[in-house]
Fold these 2 entries.
Entry 1:
Amino acid sequence: MSAFKRLKITPMRVLLIILLGIVIVTFIPMVFNPIRRPQKMVRNYILRLTPIGTHIDDVVKFIESKQEWTVLYINYKMGYAHLGEPIPGWPVITRTIPGSDGSITTRRTSIIGDKSIRAYLGEYYAWYTLGYHTAVSVFWCFDKGGKLIEVYVSKEIDII
């Protein structure tokens, strides 16, 4: 009697085992590495660690206490320049961006807060990004008094 017959391995069971393997490979790393989670979940994780109202100096100390994280910049003169669509209620500036072909592009950008911090949290590789790495950064936005008012998470997939 063959091993397949003794174990009663059917095509349906093989398919279920493959699907279970995909689920494990996809979701188990998210449990152990919070930066692998979707952006909204990473934002909620960051807000649990640095709640709204936290002072900028305390956020800097917290980031520096995390060995895997790196402060990329602290800007005491300007908030975070949100690169998406302008956000109602926040000041908007118009930026000109020179192209490599000599063209000029203008983009309207919202400025969130009066001060900001950007930190690099790390990167990861996942099969669903076809082997490219995803870099994760967080932007903390502060008011004039240095109190945290907003957090943005950026995930950039490097395909080059």
Entry 2:
Amino acid sequence: MTDTPKQIAVFDINGTLLHDNIGVLFIRHLFRRGKLPLLTMLLISFIYPLVKLRLLSFRYAILLGIWGVAGMTEQEAEQEAQLCFDAVMKPKLLQDGLKEIAHCQQRGIPIILATGSQISIAKIFQKHVQADELIAATTQLDSNGRFSMRAQKPLPFKTGKRDLVLALKNKKAPQSKMTVYSDTIKDTALLEAADHPIAVNATTEFSAWVKSQNGSVRHFK
């Protein structure tokens, strides 16, 4: 980040910068490549349908992303992430979202990406959009320097995501005004903490709530 910026901009990824779910795309990529551990495949087959049916918290979807790279080194996971991004994600990027980031950068506004996806794939996304900072689900390493099935806490989800963003903001730019772009009600806590919340590609109900918080509504294609 630049010294004492007056503003910062925080972007979610799913539905805001990407027309899909970054974590799901990465897991599917790993499955097709035969890279998923057997235990992870069993957990996905049992847990993910329950998440989709809203019988389990979306927190478990974040954990599935953590479990998907278990046993890999950081380098191996990032290599797979780059392959996934190039082959699958690039065609799904929301160009208006990328233009909004570029517009902010031209004005000298630092960019924070805040996502619940596993950090390996999130880093590739960060590199592509040239974001200044990244908040993502981080995996603890085991004694052999490989990703374990344990996530560092707090998870970037709901209040955890808000707290991670605010801790970074307070460290880097405590006096700055914060704009947050998100498409999901799961980011309510983060949007409430923003000086300017922006609903992107959001439902009518969520858009109305953001407007009630003195925010605005955008549509990115």
